[in-house]
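## tool: complex_structure
## caller: assistant
## args:
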Amino acid sequence: MTAGLYSALALILLTAALPVSAKNGVEGEYDVPTGAYHSPLFGAEPFTTRLLRMEEFGSKDLPNTECEDCERFPNPVNCRESVGGYDLDQFLAQRLTPMPRRSANTEEPNPWETLIEHCIRPLAQTATEGRPPGEWYAHQRWSEMYPEKYFQSATRGARRNLGLRDSYQMHGYKVGEFAAGGLYHKANESGPSTSGIEVQFHPNMPIQDPNSLWTFDGTFPPKLLMARHGVPILFRHYNGLPIDDSMNYGFGRHTLSTHEHNGHNPAESDGYTSAFFFPGQFFDYRWPMALAGYDTINQDASDPRAATPDGNGGSIQIRGDWRETMSTHWFHDHMLDYTAQNVYKGSAAMMNYYSVLDRGNEKLACHYADPVNNVNLCLPSGDALDWGNRDYDVNMEIADKAWDSSGQLFFNMFNLDGFLGDRMTVNWTYKPYLDVRARRYRFRLLNASVSRYIKIAVLDEDGNRVPFHMVANDGNIMEHAIPFVGEDVPIQSIAERYDIVIDFSKFEPGSKVYFVNTVEHEDGRGPLETPVDLADILDGSYENRAPGFFDPAVGAFLEMRVVGYSGTDTSMNPELYEPGGLKMIPLPEFTAEDLAGARHRSFRFGRSNTSDTEPWTVQVDDEIEGSGMEAGKISAAPDLGTVEIWHLSTRGSWSHPIHIHFEEGQLLTRDGREPPIYEKFARKDTFRLGREAQSSREISVALRFREFLGSYMEHCHNTQHEDYAMMLRFDAQQPGQVLLIPTPVPEWDGVFYEESYAISSAKTGDPNLPQPPPGVGADQDEDGVADVADNCKLIPNGPLAFDWGGNSQLDTDSDGFGNLCDPDLNNDGFTNFVDFVSFVIAFYSQPGQPTWNPNADLNGDEIVNFGDFFSFVGGWMRAPGPSGLSQ
Amino acid sequence: MDASAWAERIVAVKRLGRSEGWGQGNRQREARFFPGMGWKSLCILVAFILSLAGVSSAEKGKPWGEGYFPDVLLTTHEGKEVRFYQDLLKDKVVAINFMFTSCENVCPAETARLSQVVSLLGDRVGEDIHFYSISIDPEVDTPEALARYRERFDVGEGWTFLTASRETSDLIQRKLGLLVEQLDDPNDHNASLVLGSEANSRWIRRSPYDNPKSLAHLLAESLQNGRKAPRANRNLASYADAPSRENWDKGERIYRSRCAACHTIGEGNRVGPDLAGVTQRREREWLVRWIVEPDLMISEKDPEALELLKAWDDIRMPNFGLNQAEAEAILGFIERSAPSPSTGPERSLSMRDPVGH
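## result:
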């Protein structure tokens, strides 16, 4: 009672009397990042439980035929629960059923139809697949990039792991450090299985309620997809969440859309924010795993560096640009208005791309041993398997979380500035430890927070900085390994991935190394401009600041315990690959010509400058105002095959990590200057904008659009900012494309479409910036037919032009010149008096009359009159055309 | 760095747990502010203890309900007293924004935009969807003032305008995450729209300038978990007929996002006059200026401006910060859109054919 009264008092006091910095809050605690009570620890101390190694989804060969006796997705027992855990495991263990289709499977009903009708309302129709139906969201290049492998999972509420995927782990708990006696053999407390692992942040802490945390299979450890370049893979994602949307413990929406972050994927599989699916349904995401440049570079697959492991120590050569090889990705929910809540709630997994360059094998024909003939970079990993060894290659999903007084995951959507948790977790475990051998390790660091930036100092027990190399930025291996000696990992905004290599060989067994976060937040708008002084963290003065505020996520969050190593470390020594030394993966170049011919666009993130003063808008090109996300509004429409330069900026004091889907970019400038070396050698997909250290207010990024079409997004990856509208749609288009892909509107009854529209500069770029002269894809008369296909290039006679009689592109004499620009009636290549005589003869004739001459009906209105005369005069004493079809 | 200090620090962190230091920090701050409390705050304090007495703990797994939203008193435009949580939020799907009637720019535009949403929703407003506009200017915005304002916008049933003490409206704004600290100019208040479903713990922020159709869909469909059947004309096969649409030029875009809330072109008067033929009725130069700086023209007592103001119930044409070129673009669009028998060019439709399958 006293405590209750005290907190009630605190609430009143703070809401009523606290000035400026008071935030909206819950249950009586204010002025701290979460907007709630601090998350209780239940006696859990830092570094007392192991880091969970991620569990592989495991992929299987796609079957060739329908399974005759396979069960359909099982029903939950009622509308308030997820699909049953045991039932789900039974279902997932059987073959894929039904077989995937090019366009959405809307013939079979939602298997939960009866239950949905019971709890929601009678439905006119339902579909088993939630992918928008028909051609618009059909898989592009389906037969050409038909999936060889598949994996399936259902997102559902938290539950105990029953060991479903034990046998799907590539290491099988039988080799390397995963074998008996190895460091990571015991996945659960007793042995080589994840069976029995509960969804909890620490063994001392309560098990998560199914409504609190939603994730793949509903189980821990968090999941990892191992996939190879050149092997198209299908992810059948079932929605196993409760039909009743109030069963969410206060946050999260039970509809899903899955974005494979940084994948070079066709739009229908990119997780467009309004292409979401409902409980009971699945969505087939097909990720081609193609190297960018597939259509234009190395088309005969003759370059041995563009290749994928064959599983037996050899390689299979594939098409595309080997310099576009990718490595560390993640996939996560992208649900319109609820991305922050759903990702935070557990809808996120990591994904490693493997290739002959980044094979996950540190021994097989290493590049450093013979840089001319060998291609395998031999990053720290292991050597028991042909590819995909994870013995010394650790995925780390770093995120801040908060939980309520009962220990259940907590989110405050009313923190509109951005949501911060007060507890640091790695792979969903509160401040874990990890046993490491005294040798080189690769850590794949992902910042999976909602709004929190991190900056990691790697320290030994004496507080000294441990040197390391950064080898990949945003999951892409850089040209060179960048040494960090006496320095910290660069600041890492939300969704950025940094792969670093640390050498523990100089440490004695028993010694410890720490990851220490030095970036401080007072709110979700962005980090404070300068990181906390490490000395203040180490001597404790940071958290003893009086009076008041400190950010509890600052400080050590991961302990690595060095264990002796008796093997031989054959992994690459990153020192060999430092600038000036060997190259890992050279940057795909943008030539001077590419850049000179690039289309320029500008995107300003922040407050709009007119009456809508919201801080969450994007202003594109010469738009007079910023605006929020609108699913049907196309703000940019880059043509395939072209290079564009996007200028991103912010004016305000907030920080925005901007993520561009589909194509990764190369940073040209930061505030007009050359970017730092770890960004200069990088292909990036997330770009920091803000006033924090190592960032800038303005950047220019070069992008090349290739291979796939459709609706993608660009947005702030502070997902609270994204959900509050800091997002836009861009459509990758065919040159000359006039159709706008409509906008899906999913409902229980199926997905409907609404019309889309494009802003005036969507095709042309920012009119206030220099733009390239018309080239391939240009449509100079803006009639909707690209110059190359337009039989009147300069006179509008396409679908966008005023149409006299429904005859766009009319060419009655079939000479390649449209009638509207072809008064050369005798086809002698010039319009003169001879043609005029023919025209006069036909004047005022209509079809059927003896004087009718269809070639003289220039505008196609089935009468030769003054309308045609004006067009005739326009071509007087000239050659017909110009036409894109005939010269 | 002293080696032993850092090692000790690690130990100390383990021993103490970080939460303790943190909690202390906050208590110190509370103590500091306690003596500075004014009598008003004390009154609220007492009111709060009373209101919280009945709320010992929030329902498990439902943090955004009774324990979170204050059950404070507000007065409707009809003079009725209502409680924020019990009467306005509980078990309802709601759209809430903040405004004040003397607001010259933002609010009329917002109100007009929302009225578009309301008219799309039809008779569901007041039935299972509730609109609340809460005044942040209690001194001026009496229930009568709100009723008058409401009438001017021709607002139907189900959209309630409310007024409350400044402390109450601040508290509600804070709880919804919309309070702008140290608000110097009330025109800069947070114009966001909060949409939510209390029963389902679903809350999102939107802008009143969002596409009215998408706002209507959120309220009628998404936030209701689809419990009401969608409109009958929905057809799953319709994708095949989805037309492509011409790019909106600048004039159309501005018109649609800014003007269309109050005006039509040839479909009759709404909050403001029908604009069909307006370029023939008035001088171009006057029109451009009226679009660019209507507030200045009113304060300069331009006779035509005053006449309009009088004819249209004192609803001011807002200053949207447009420039002359933009005003010209709007006028160009209005001229092009004048009603005519022609329905415009037919568009050929072929399916998307990606790089080749």
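## assistant note: Residues 1-31 of chain A have pLDDT under 50 and may be disordered. Chain A has ten helices and 36 strands. Handing back to user.
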